[in-house]
Design brief:
alpha+beta; single chain; two-stranded antiparallel ribbon; 88 residues; 33% helix; 2 strands; 3 helices
């Protein structure tokens, strides 16, 4: 699969990637997806690591995405994914 990242989905997020950090990122981004602008507190939103490194939990590396954009972003494959990350 072109979206395979060598097993990154099995890596640990680290203890600092907790509910408090995620909530602060959601609040910072206004509870909206930074790509499509959709979202409210009722919308399913996720906190995404821009550099795909689950251990890099610096707030500058984190952004709010809706589940739809998050799925599309990861489903584009590694090459397109890296290009999309540079734009964000």
């Amino acid at each position: 699969n072109p979206a395979w990242l060598g097993g990154k989905s099995f890596e640990d997020y680290g203890t600092e990637f907790n509910d408090s950090l995620k909530k602060s990122i959601l609040e910072r981004d206004g509870w909206k997806c930074v790509l499509c602008g959709m979202g409210t507190r009722q919308t399913q939103l996720v906190v995404h690591h821009k550099d795909v490194d689950k251990r890099n939990n610096n707030p500058t590396n984190l952004q709010t995405l809706c589940k739809s954009c998050h799925g599309r972003l990861h489903g584009e494959g590694l090459q397109n994914y890296r290009v999309a990350r540079k734009v964000m």
